[in-house]
Amino acid sequence: MRSTASILHLDLDAFFAAVEQRDKPSLRGKPVIVGGTGGRGVVATASYEARVFGVGSAMSGREARARCPNAAFLSGRFHAYRETSTRVMEVLRDLSPLVEPLSLDEAFVDLSAADLPDLEVATVTEAGERLRRRVQEVTGGLTATVGIASSKFLAKVASELDKPDGMTVVPPGAELDLLRPMKVTVIPGVGPVTAERLRRAGIHTIAELELVSEDELVRIVGQAHGHGLWQLARAQDSRPVLAERETKSISVEGTYDNDLNDRKLMEGLLTRQAKDVGTRMRKNGFSGRTVSIKVRLHDFTTLSRSSTLSSPTDDGATIGRVARSLLGDLDTTGGVRLLGVGVSGLADWVQEDLFGETADEEEIEVVLPEPPRRSWPPGADVVHDDMGQGWVWGSGSGVVTVRFETAATPPGPVRSFKADDPALHRLEPPVES
Description:
Blueprint: E1 7-12, H1 15-23, E2 32-35, E3 43-46, H2 48-51, H3 61-67, E4 72-74, H4 78-95, E5 99-103, E6 106-110, H5 121-138, E7 144-149, H6 152-158, E8 167-169, H7 175-179, H8 192-200, H9 206-210, H10 214-221, H11 223-232, E9 249-260, H12 263-284, E10 287-297, E11 302-313, H13 316-327, E12 336-347, E13 381-384, E14 388-396, E15 399-403, E16 414-418, E17 424-426
Parallel strand pairs: 2-4, 7-8
Antiparallel strand pairs: 1-6, 1-7, 2-3, 5-6, 9-12, 10-11, 10-12, 13-14, 13-17, 14-15, 15-16
């Protein structure tokens, strides 16, 4: 913990849903849910208007619809989220060279590396307010909540206190006064299991947790969590803001337009991905011991399996052979929408011929099924030759309904077309280089 409140945590408010409301004027001020569009899908983000009804992230789409049946359920436009996130991260780096992104919508910033006259509370507060205004400008109106404190832990806690569109600065010396009344679940890593163990011991708040000795806490929750909880209950957190994290893994994955059911095709895709992983590892001078695969099923259930080799490798054929064997342990009969291969446990040396000669291994042919000529997921960007740009309101039974509006227009008209209308086109996101 520092002697100054010089670590800032920024969290964009209801980010995915906010981007959709920005780009779709008719949805502003109304409940919007990103994700959960399929029968067994899950919610990625809910707007604050939807949260009033109890809708939250990771909730099933079925439950979200029961709670908020009048919400707009959208499939998501990740190119728009990435582009907006890039603008925000550039603003943060203009403030300080030490920025540690945690995801598309949140990051830590080290204000001690910023060009500020001092780190007094009034100075960092002004810097935080300027930052929030700047974020709103570059994103076209999105809001962010900011927390500023003497540690990462306190800054993240502070950024949850005045949502949405707020800011909390924790003055040095006031950390424990802020923490003590809070529930233990504000501490990272205190999930349902750990919280239940603490509850059985009569510990509900951080003030009560602070009274427990370190040895007793280890006995209650185990060695892995006990020491860390004991420190955080006393606001002890010295983790630095890391602008560049050490590379811990190299992976390649792909999401497919149609669910995959052909096991040979899946093996071929894993083989191709493994070859790409090996190429990237050699290019960067890495090898690794742990091969893993990621498989997302048709219902968005995500499975992962891994196997650790006796020595590091950077050979794509070896990685592919392990990946295919891991796939063999999984039930994919319902269909697969995403496959990925990764290698972790990185090292800078290689054990040659780990599995013997691999140069003559036969390449598995990969021929992906042709995607539908056009698909119309809810929320997708489209353009009509006569009506102009809009987004998919809904589709089914050979009909697609479009709301014609953009971020720069007022709420627009709704029109329906045949799904194969040659005048209606998907607006594809730009290809990333």
